[in-house]
Amino acid sequence: MIDCGADWLRRVHDLAPDAIVLTHAHPDHADGLRHGAPCPVWATHETWAVIAGYPIEERRTLAPHVPATIEGIGLEACPVQHSLRCPAVGYRIDVKEGNVFYVPDVAAIGAPAEVLAGTVLYIGDGATITRPILRKEEGVLLGHAPIRTQLGWCRDAGVRCAAFTHCGSEIVGGDGRRLGAKVRALARECGVAARIAYDGLEIELP
To answer: What is the pTM of this model?
Structure first.
């Protein structure tokens, strides 16, 4: 399970995952663990520092750019720009076809063509479609890059398939059919097949 937000607080023990991996410590990604976890939890040192008081018994630390294997799945934490208080990572996850890159909150990726090399599926930040939600502090971009920008990263890295999750109010409160068509049109301009994710979505890798 990747991330465990506050809405999982009373459900994660029933779900009983084999492992939980956190991208960062914002409440909508980590507060489902405020009462502990039913399994080992993996996170970066920066994330553990923010949630140090959570009663998690089995803590595992991931180092940036150091490959790890969790429950037989290979992955690598790749730092991204999103928050100063809760530094975030995306995960490069090994699959037979190459890798899947998962980053639910992102303002910028350093050297995206390099980070996304070999990626067959990009799962990104659906906070907004075309409007940046960004500000800069201490020389770091914070917030959320729009889907259009992320599709540009995919184009430049040769990623041909994308899905966008963790959607913002523009998508959640909008016309799904119209907005889905808008995302697909933007994606076609970049040579990418893309969609807005939904609960239960399954994607067959190319």
So the answer is: 0.96
